[in-house]
């Protein structure tokens, strides 16, 4: 497969899905890069090469379309073409494939590192845009496993691995063309300035903000937007709602999610000096407002997907709870979120993690599953609260009333 590489700086983006086409790829293309998307879906890659662009539908009251131009695609298994692209004037490589897929990218990334070393190429930056704290560090560790000592030292010197927070709601979208993508107007991409290397070409990327307080911004986004989103989806599922819009428009769910976000917010403000109560409450209000966009069709099944990943320590549910425990702050709303996540069992069985979680609760019992997930001691007050909430929610859901 050949890729058209015009005389322009090149950005490589792994994952031509919703956030890839709908956000990061679009920001990079608008910043003046030729964007090479790498994906496993042949129909998407073929369409990118045939069209060389796609439509971005901005969904709000004044919905409109923006054209993203100057893009092409490569299959992630086509290491030969990836090698050729790596010789172009690349300055940034990004990913949006899903946290669990990151290890699978080690081989193509290692190929890029080896090629650039052999070709004596200068510095580039790699930014993993996934909903996971320290996603880029995880990717780096996986790439290191594919390299020898000399290649690893070239990588340390020449490749900046920058962690980021990435925020734009981009659900699957049915347009006229397979590449069409529908997005909310809001977007925020914040990258760790301390890890970025100076590249040649050195392109200013409008739409990519940098900060030296990255952990704070990642936690703010994950423990607010993703935390609220997850709880809305799990309570929505239990109330038999199919979309985030229907769920958040249910007063009891809106109030439960608001409570959880007030709790995570109190912990975030306490933990990070750069946040204050007033601004953070505004951030929460904006977040909740984004969930009520009537032009977006976002399924609770998408937002709640992979509940075991979302129930990991440090992620959107246990992360803010751990922070509340650290400062002895109220956390009942967040504990309800965990109880609801443990009851997430969407029909169809496509969500393997949801199935596995239900199986696990059935086999080991809720108490033992929670001990494993949380690392708390038997008889922990929060653990007992989750169990009580779980039983209450289960009963209410079965009666179809929440
Ligand atoms: N959609 C959103 O609203 C949103 C917003 C912020 C962050 N994110 C994060 O972005 C990531 C992607 O989410 P998404 O919603 O775009 O998912 P998606 O499923 O729409 O896109 C993922 C893409 O990765 C591709 N892929 C899978 N394996 C691959 C591989 N080995 N090599 C190359 N490509 C591969 C898939 O084919 C797909 O096109 C996730 O980590 C998600 O948490 C999503
Ligand atoms: O992508 P996930 O599964 O980690 O989380 C689901 C949604 O909360 C998420 O995709 C949001 O839409 C996104 O993080 C908004 O920036």
UniProtKB/TrEMBL annotation:
Residue intervals passing through the bilayer: none
Keyword Hydrolase listed: no
SUPFAM superfamilies, alphabetized: 6-phosphogluconate dehydrogenase C-terminal domain-like, NAD(P)-binding Rossmann-fold domains
Record-linked InterPro entries: 6-PGluconate_DH-like_C_sf (IPR008927), 6PGD_dom2 (IPR013328), Mannitol_1_phos_5_DH (IPR023028), Mannitol_DH (IPR000669), Mannitol_DH_C (IPR013118), Mannitol_DH_CS (IPR023027), Mannitol_DH_N (IPR013131), NAD(P)-bd_dom_sf (IPR036291)
Residue span, Mannitol dehydrogenase N-terminal domain: 11-203
Domain Mannitol dehydrogenase C-terminal: start-end pairs: 213-359
Coiled-coil segments on the chain, per record: none
Record EC number: 1.1.1.17
Catalysed reaction, written as an equation: D-mannitol 1-phosphate + NAD(+) = beta-D-fructose 6-phosphate + NADH + H(+)
Keywords in alphabetical order: NAD, Oxidoreductase
Keyword check for Nucleotidyltransferase: no
Family named by the database record: Belongs to the mannitol dehydrogenase family.
PANTHER family, sorted: ALTRONATE OXIDOREDUCTASE-RELATED (PTHR30524:SF0), MANNITOL-1-PHOSPHATE 5-DEHYDROGENASE (PTHR30524)
Subunit structure: Monomer.
Name by which UniProt lists this protein: Mannitol-1-phosphate 5-dehydrogenase
Organism of origin: Marasmiellus scandens
């Amino acid at each position: 497969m050949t890729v058209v590489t015009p005389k322009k700086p090149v950005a490589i983006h792994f994952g031509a899905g919703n956030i890839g086409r709908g956000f990061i790829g679009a920001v990079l293309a608008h910043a003046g890069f030729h964007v090479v998307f790498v994906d496993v879906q042949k129909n998407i890659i073929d369409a990118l090469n045939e069209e060389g662009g796609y439509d971005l539908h901005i969904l709000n009251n004044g919905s409109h379309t923006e054209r993203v131009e100057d893009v092409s695609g490569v299959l992630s298994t086509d290491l030969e073409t990836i090698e050729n692209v790596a010789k172009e004037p690349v300055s940034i490589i990004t990913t949006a494939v899903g946290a669990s897929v990151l290890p699978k990218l080690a081989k193509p990334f290692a190929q890029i590192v080896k090629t650039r070393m052999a070709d004596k190429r200068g510095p580039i930056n790699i930014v993993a845009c996934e909903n996971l704290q320290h996603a880029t560090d995880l990717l780096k560790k996986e790439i290191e496993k594919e390299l020898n000592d000399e290649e690893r030292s070239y990588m340390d010197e020449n490749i900046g691995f920058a962690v980021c927070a990435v925020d734009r709601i981009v659900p699957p979208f049915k347009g006229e063309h397979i590449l069409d993508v529908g997005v909310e107007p809001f977007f925020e991409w914040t990258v760790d300035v301390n890890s970025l290397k100076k590249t040649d070409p050195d392109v200013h990327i409008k739409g990519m903000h940098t900060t030296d307080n990255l952990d704070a911004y990642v936690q703010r986004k994950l423990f607010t937007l993703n935390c609220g989103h997850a709880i809305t989806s799990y309570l929505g599922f239990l109330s038999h709602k199919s979309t985030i819009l229907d769920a958040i428009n249910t007063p009891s769910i809106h109030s439960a999610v608001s409570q959880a976000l007030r709790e995570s917010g109190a912990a975030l403000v306490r933990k990070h000096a750069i946040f204050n109560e007033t601004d953070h409450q505004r951030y929460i209000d904006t977040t909740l407002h984004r969930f009520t966009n009537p032009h977006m069709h976002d399924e609770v099944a998408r937002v709640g997907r992979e509940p075991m990943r979302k129930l990991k320590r440090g992620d959107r549910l246990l992360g803010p709870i751990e922070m509340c425990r650290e400062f002895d702050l109220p956390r009942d709303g967040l504990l309800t979120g965990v109880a609801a996540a443990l009851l997430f069992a969407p029909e169809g069985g496509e969500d393997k993690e949801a199935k596995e979680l239900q199986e696990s609760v059935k086999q080991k019992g809720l108490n033992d599953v929670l001990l494993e997930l949380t690392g708390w001691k038997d008889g922990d007050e929060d653990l007992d609260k989750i169990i009580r909430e779980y039983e209450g929610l289960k009963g209410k859901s079965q009666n179809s009333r929440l």
